[in-house]
Amino acid sequence: MSSPTKTERGRKSSGTTAESAESDAVDQLEEGLITTVTTAPTIQVPVPVKVFSVVGMDEARAHDAVASDGTEVDEGPETDRLDEGAESGGVGGAPGDLEEVAGFDERILERSAQETGVVTGEAPALDAWYAEFMDGNGAAVRLAQHQPEMVQQIAEVVIGADDRVRITNTTAMPWRWICALRITAANNTNWIGTGWLVGPRTVITAGHCVFMHNQGGWVKRVEVIPACNGAQRPYGSATATSFRSVTGWTQGSNRSYDYGAIILPSANKYGNQLGYFGYASLSTTSLMGLTLNLSGYPGDKPSGTQWFHARKATLVLPRSIVYNIDTAGGQSGAPVWRYLNGQRHVVGIHTNGSQLGNSATRIVSGVFNNIKTWKAQGM
Amino acid sequence: MSRLHGTIEGVVSDAAGTPIGDAAVMLGEGPEHPDIAAITSGGGTFSFAGLEPGEYEVIVNPAGAPTTRVTARVDAGRVSRLQIRIG
Question: Is B69 close to A137, i.e. CB distance below 8 A?
């Protein structure tokens, strides 16, 4: 087990920020809040959408006002220092545990273990079988006829059969900390994403779930639905209009900075009721070989259903983690967490799909600090 | 639109050509892309912009209907338009 040098328990929210500039060679941990729901869950009805009431103020201007209060945080050169620290060695890694999920085939991890260990260099060789090419819907067949090289390329990198497992007991830990997101962009288009509770009113997600470069910038609103289970909303939902991200994403469109936060209305302190995840900035050494758990709300499954998968990382980069965990559109923002000794710490924020491996924004020290700040803003 | 990126946009409709709204549309296999899903408008429309050039799988999941997968090619500075009929 790695030895954390910084640990903060529960809802305590101050005192460690200044220390976070230390090398990424040591792990940073912030523990979540575990609550026990022993009675019938309280149903919280959605609160009215916050309306910016300034006459003539459009949504973009309104969000600018939010930004002036700290919406965007420039991480600056701190990231570079952390990247260097990440590659300079660190505390020895310890394999994390797999969440206990009925129906999940643990043999998947045995296979993925053989894919682990690549830090830099060429993309790992992956299993080369994909059922979709056999389903006869015509798409792949046409591809095979006209572009055989492309088919070959895809077939070499796509993970095997879809072995995601549906979470049916979404009111249990940690599933209830995971939220379905219904996003309304600035241009009124609608989107699906995922987020996770990190504090009483703070939900962490992908940057592109709160700031959409090709849809008008800051989104208008996000409906947050903890523990969503199909049509069931055991804890109701909250509609938020207060968002956070970093300039590396909002101005730079840099995938490495694709993360953000949703601050729920003051009446919706879901975290106090349900608990929330811890999070950690782990060294590269600690991340290698770790079992990564991921659960979220994919759009290719029945609407509003939560799905789980787990594997080990295939590639740990300075600001991202690459893995063959099965995901689909709608899982942007989902937590990628380590479950070790009964503790759950999110180490990455799922953001991207790719035939070369799905990936998360890695929680390095700069990300850690911003999550900590945003958590404090949602106390 | 960036000269380095392309767009996939389309309309989802049923066999009779009636637009299907509230269908989830997402990108599957292909170059790296945000793992977010679009919800079709009342007119059945959707759009993914800022995409790396390449071949993408487009997955459409309408409520109460089978999931459909098609492929679309994205070229830099171009818009790929899809007409996806379900059923």
Answer: yes
